[in-house]
From TrEMBL:
Protein name as it appears in the record: SRR1-like domain-containing protein
Cross-referenced PANTHER family: SRR1-LIKE PROTEIN
Family of this protein: Belongs to the SRR1 family.
InterPro entries given in the database record: SRR1-like, SRR1L
UniProt domain SRR1-like: residue ranges: 4-150
Assigned GO CC terms: cytoplasm; nucleus
Pfam families: SRR1
Taxonomic superkingdom: Eukaryota
Amino acid sequence: MFSWIGEVEVFDQVISLAESKVLTALGCSVLTVNEQGRRQALRPMMFFMAHCDAELYENLLEANWMQDLLSNMTLFGNSFEAYEQHVSECKNFRLTDSKKHILAIRQFVKELPMDSMKHIIAIRQFAKERSIDPFSDDLFCAFHGSSWHFFDIDPHSDLCDAKL
């Protein structure tokens, strides 16, 4: 079914057996190993990562932090611009009266430190981001905050110079 695209590999940690069978019948390879987003783009690849945690984007970028690998990637997922804005707005955040609630809830929360998004922030200078404009309520729920990301890295750019 997807012969004009090439191989389609799918991973979802909560995929059901029925979904897996349908995808296999459509010619997709259903991956069973959770790579935590660390798949290298050794050939041109499109990553569909709508509404994933920042940690998965960070892992994907870190695993592909070379010009030739990033140039193989197209990514549909959360807006990196929004992540950068959030980091910028929250870096001066101070706890006030609600400190007791925040401290009490911490044992139930898995927190992603801001510095663990360093690859997401650093790649912004090399990425072209096209936001999605959901034109109906149904699409808004599914795609709000999503963007296409295209990585056009100059072969002479040194990603090591990017501020991580």
